[in-house]
Amino acid sequence: MNTRNILKIEKTDAEWRTQLTPDQYRITRQHGTERAFSSPDFEPDKTGSYHCVCCNRPLYHSQTKFDSGTGWPSFSGPISVDAVTEHHDNSYGLSRTAIRCADCDAHLGHVFPDGPPPTGLRYCMNGAALTFESG
User: Fold this and answer.
1) 106 within 8 A of 50, measured Cβ to Cβ
2) Which of 3, 54, 55, 74 could form a disulfide with 68 if both were Cys (CB 3.0 to 4.6 A apart)?
């Protein structure tokens, strides 16, 4: 039995453009990347969860956030196994694994195998693709 909790959200391009800022749209809908060290408001001492800016699905908990020194918010794992999906990405001549929101397919960032224990993974996310909820 499949216990994954995925709610597919589909909107037109015009609906996404109305809902998102130009930068959020470029990153989440056109698979863009923000400049390093430009992410808004990601202090390490904040407690809560990070949600998809497009559909508000909870994606990462602050307990898994760490300073990777890369200039992008980094997490050691998603809030649940069904929160995000992985996709092969060959852009810019690189072979990487892109991460998208499981509910709305928003491009969030990439995952790399150089993170801290216990997962050894670094989910390197675009801050503009996330919102924060304290608690």
Assistant:
1) no
2) 74
Q: What is the pLDDT of residues 23-68, one digit of tens each?
A: 999 999 999 999 999 986 677 678 999 999 999 999 999 999 999 9
Q: What is the Cα 52 distance to its own chain's centre?
A: 7
Q: What is the DSSP string of 18-61?
A: HHS-HHHHHHHTS---PPTT--SS--TT--EEEEETTT--EEEE
Domains in the chain, ordered, with CATH? Answer: 13-34+58-134 (2.170.150.20)
Contact 62, 77 (CB under 8 A): no
Which residue in 52, 54, 101, 124 is the catalytic one? 124
Contact yes or no for 107/29 (Cβ under 8 A): yes
What's the rounded Cα separation, in Å, for the pair 86 and 30?
16
Indicate if 54 belongs to the active site: no
Residue with tokens 């956030």: 65
pTM: predicted TM-score of the whole model, two decimal places: 0.90
Confirm if 82 and 102 have CB atoms less than 8 A apart: yes
| Residue reference for tokens 């499981």 | 102
